[in-house]
Amino acid sequence: MTATAAVIISVNPSPVSPTPPLISIRGMSKRSGAATVSRDIDLDIAKGEVIAIIGPSGTGKSTLCRTTNRLKTISSGTITFRGEPLPTTSVGLKKVRVDIGMVFQTFNLFPHMIVLQNVTFSPLRIRKLSRTLAEVRAAALMERAVVAHKANAYPHQLSGGQRQRVAIARRLAMEPEVMLFDEPTSTLDLEIVSEVLDVMRSFAAEGMTMVVVTHEMGFAKATADHVLFLADGAIAEQSAPEQLFTAPPTTRAKDFLARVLQH
């Protein structure tokens, strides 16, 4: 009897494709009249990533943030969200902005509504949640944002820090996939800036995808996965925070950090 040798064929598995970015920006430029505000921006934003955007005033930081959900239109290049180009119609953009939330320097709360109504308004009207579910979510978010005790207060009865924390809770109540923050602490008194940053840190720690334009270098260094340094409308540096803050590779970045870290 002849033995039949078993033949084992080893097949190398196909390489696993990396997870595509949640948002991808390629060759983006933005012009305003004869001036170029942003130029040649390439950026990928992965799910769960925190990106801090820093740099001198007037270098296109807010423009980059606001073009990410098309609050500002771009002059050239492409921006995709979940692999699809950002829509151009108002209906399509409204849908995208539900999933790409934004918090501004100003709070934009409804002055005639109490805090609870501010936080539940969009989930009720746009997400079509039941009032019970909307209020349960709102209560949890207000607790996280340390404003639950102000649920029945009107915006004019709140401090600036409280109003900004309500604004964050209101946007998170829509359960966005990405949160954009355009200098959310720039109008606040120094003693209450940390209140807002603490809330942002807590959501970042839980995996919220965030793009934050900020002058708060401590927040950028401790919380961000990547830091972009913008100069003259372009990304001059892009690296992990430890590298950028410890050994900035360009004179422009060194000079900027030397100035802001003195204050």
Detailed description of the structure:
The protein is an alpha/beta fold and 263 residues long. The chain has helices at 61-67, 90-99, 115-125, 131-144, 160-172, 190-205, 217-223, 241-246, 251-261, and strands at 23-32, 35-45, 50-54, 76-81, 84-85, 100-103, 178-182, 209-213, 226-231, 234-239. The strands form two sheets. The protein has a six-stranded mixed sheet with strand order 6-7-8-3-9-10, with helices on both faces. Strands 2-1-4-5 form a four-stranded antiparallel sheet, with helices on one face. Helix 6 (190-205) links the parallel strand 7 (178-182) and strand 8. Helix 3 (115-125) packs across helix 4. It is globular and about 55 Å long. The N and C termini lie far apart (88 Å).
Give the topology, please.
Blueprint: E1 23-32, E2 35-45, E3 50-54, H1 61-67, E4 76-81, E5 84-85, H2 90-99, E6 100-103, H3 115-125, H4 131-144, H5 160-172, E7 178-182, H6 190-205, E8 209-213, H7 217-223, E9 226-231, E10 234-239, H8 241-246, H9 251-261
Parallel strand pairs: 3-8, 3-9, 6-7, 7-8
Antiparallel strand pairs: 1-2, 1-4, 4-5, 9-10
Helix pairs in contact: 3-4, 3-5, 4-5, 5-6
List descriptors.
six-stranded mixed beta sheet, 263 residues, four-stranded antiparallel beta sheet, alpha/beta
Secondary-structure class = alpha/beta
Total helices: the number is: 9
Spatial strand arrangement across the major sheet: 6-7-8-3-9-10
- Secondary structure: number of strands: 10
Rg (CA only): 22 Å
Please provide a brief summary of the model.
This protein is of the alpha/beta class and about 260 residues long. The chain is built from 9 helices and 10 strands.
